[in-house]
């Protein structure tokens, strides 16, 4: 049974490896820009390294989990009584009790007990640094763990964190509260659990239940040393040997054991009475019961180790992907914002420049007409009139240029501020993404940031080049109008023949009409130039923003591809869940989905039994006769191959996502 199931699981794991390999080349290549293309290749390398790490985790499990023997590990803080309890259960000679050398052992000690292996692990009270790999390996080999707690040292918060990290969803856990003390402590009162011990026991149960969810079973209180003394086959010859060992080998502990054995007989009527009080029999009964169900325990424990790794991988990828999606979405939003903002800035200044030119040209026109009228009235020479016209031209050319330059400087400053604000928002968005993933997707975001900075520099270059655009806004169209006005002056003298007053009037009218026409043309040309230069500037900024946008859009293709791979991993997780359920419950199981993080399970085809909760270590099991029955209990609608589910049950959503191949599953607050 185990071998066929093991082979089936191996096939699923090989498929997972294939999917992880395929994930390494999900990101598209950027076609045009070499720097951006290099960035994406760098992202691919990051994903490659992260997935390689996940592959190593699965390979480590494949090499370490044991299928052919049932392993119970004894885990706990230093000197809690692990070795003493093992000596008692195996009827040992006590040679490993209290020697202290175990604190520094770098090898896992395996003790045979019938068809079971007891694994004696290093303590976890600060001296395990450097032994984490050994402890992790032992936990991976374990199917059941006995966590031993000495009454003199109840686990504190830092220790509980360690326990959680080492044991999380790896095996079924029992706590054993080891009451520390020698036989003489029972001389007056032969009670194992007193009021103080009972309170400690209650606190332990609460802490571990909260810490380990459905993987924690219950607590047994014992006095391991008293139990050991009551079952140890000591004799006078053994006492003599112990004494000689103490003299020649330094093993004084053996002499102490011999003395304590005598005291046990003095305090208790018999060794059987001491054995009963020690409560060792409860642990032995538990070990016997576990041995009977060892095949199921091996299958469930080993499968859960792999499911835990798969769940962790999916969770890390999803978290990284969601943060990645958020960053991409925010960047696209900021691109749109900066384009809208720069457009508004330019529209504002464009209107102000048009208004300025309109006012200044009208004033200049008025002054030129007044000068020409004065020249006509006073019969100035052509040379004198041209001198005054040039003076007016110089005054207004300088005035208009200075005022337009001031406005354009303001526009340049506002645009640069807008672009810098864009950059700052992107950087803040990246900075506050709290990413922690085996796939290291936070580095993908960092690479995205590098690429954005590169393209952003192109935008800044555009913004800084506004100074050059300023001078080209007016290709001095005023000089053109002055040339035209000089031509008008040449004609004025022809207009002055005839009746002096009438000639003056006609000359003024003709000069006014000519100047008015030319200045109208001047305004049109200026406005056209302003609109053209503003549009060019906006297009320059938009072109650079489009480069970022196209890059983001290209990289964005990574997300749906990653979704597909997450879906494939989830399907294999569902297949493993179904295979496990069939092996434990029988072929009535049609489909099954196990979620270790939620500590919940869903079964289709098999009726729910209360014992299943303990067998599968679950907090809740949902059971349905058929898939149709399951769907009938849900609120959903189907539209265009999308199943909209109004359901807060996370397990149900994952189950449907894994098994409904014809529909894409979406959760909604309200059904249409």
Helix content: 55-70%
- Gyration radius, rounded: 43 Å
Strand content: 5-15%
Overall pLDDT level: 77
How many individual helices?
21
Extended strand count: 12
**The biggest beta sheet, please?**
6 strands, mixed
Shape: elongated
Provide the low-confidence segments as ranges: 100-105, 235-239, 246-250, 431-456, 458-476
- Helix and strand content put the structural class at alpha/beta
Give the distance, in angstroms, between the N- and C-terminal Cα atoms. 49 Å
- Strand order of the main beta sheet, please? 2-3-1-4-5-6
Key features?
672 residues, alpha/beta, six-stranded mixed β-sheet, three-stranded mixed β-sheet, 12 strands
What is this entry, summarized?
This protein has 672 residues and is of the alpha/beta class.
Describe this structure in words.
By secondary structure, the protein is α/β, with parallel strands linked by helices. The chain contains 21 helices and 12 strands. It has a 6-stranded mixed β-sheet, sandwiched between helices. Strand 11, helix 21 (650-659) and strand 12 form a beta-alpha-beta unit. Helix 18 (558-585) packs across helix 21 (650-659). The protein is elongated, with a radius of gyration of 43 Å. The chain starts with a helix and ends in a 5-residue tail after the last strand. Mean pLDDT is 77; it is low at 100-105, 235-239, 246-250, 431-456 and 458-476.
